[in-house]
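Box 4.2: Ligand-aware structure prediction
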Amino acid sequence: MSAEFPYVRPRRLRQSPAMRRLVAETRLHPAELILPLFVREGVSEPVPVTSMPGVVQHTRDTLRKAAVEAAEAGLGGVMLFGVPAVQDAVGSEGTNPDGILQQAIRDVVSEVGDALVVMSDLCLDEYTDHGHCGVLAADGSVDNDATLERYAEMARVQADAGVHLVGPSGMMDGQIAVVRRALDEAGHQDVGILAYTAKYASAFYGPFREAVGSSLKGDRKTYQQDPANAREALRELEQDLAEGADLVMVKPAMAYLDILRQVADASPVPVAAYQVSGEYAMVEAAAANGWIDRERMILETLTSIRRAGAQQILTYWALEAARML
Ligand code: PBG
């Protein structure tokens, strides 16, 4: 029958905005968007990140204001990254109870802690002078187990500062277990873990390095995943779940939508995705040249990430997207 005449006309459901809205399978909601924010120690004015037009390294003061804006826009949360004035081999400022990130956590929690989930990056690359996510062994390699001890200490100081969720992003083996144990032993049973579960060694992080003043010379291929591999993402998922992850994340987002779908299908806990700096910078650069429709591109990329299985999305456009919705 349908071979003779087009009785079946999918276009009927596309004919008007009202019809399209009725049948849309995927919706974005501000409550599921998370805004990454950078706070830099010792600056009196926000410092623009040139590789990410529209993104700044905040002062403590403008960070508070940004957090209030995020709460007023109805966002789900903020993810805080600290940019310390001093870096050293072991990333001492990351475990200083009065380090910039810990101060920022206290500021933001006291300002909007009831309205937003406050999250913090738990990683050493912002704090080390060599730029790696961990501490180095004598031969220059990243020492997994020595790094875990640093992460445990970071988890304690961040939780003491009042953070709701820590985000271990360093891809060390065993990091979720060690962080969970450190939190529990310090009486922070209620502080949760947003695990960077499938995190790839990606060129898409390029602009972020400027945002956190990271001076990495080599690469992170001995700890972040190879873009060629999907299977190990599921192994990382199993491991993070067994170690006590409360939410799991795939990162980057757009070039890894297949991974996101597989993780979403297998995960019993909420699955987040991180639309990273390079994804942001590509769209901003193309839009600045007049080559694409910026707002449509923002909503289309976010919708695609949501459709592929992410429930929560970290995006530098969170505020703007929330206002568009
Ligand atoms: C590590 C971390 C990175 C990003 C978030 N957490 C950098 C890296 O792993 O190289 C990248 C985020 C982005 O590119 O937007 N602390």
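In the box above, the bound molecule is PBG. The chain has one domain: 27-324.
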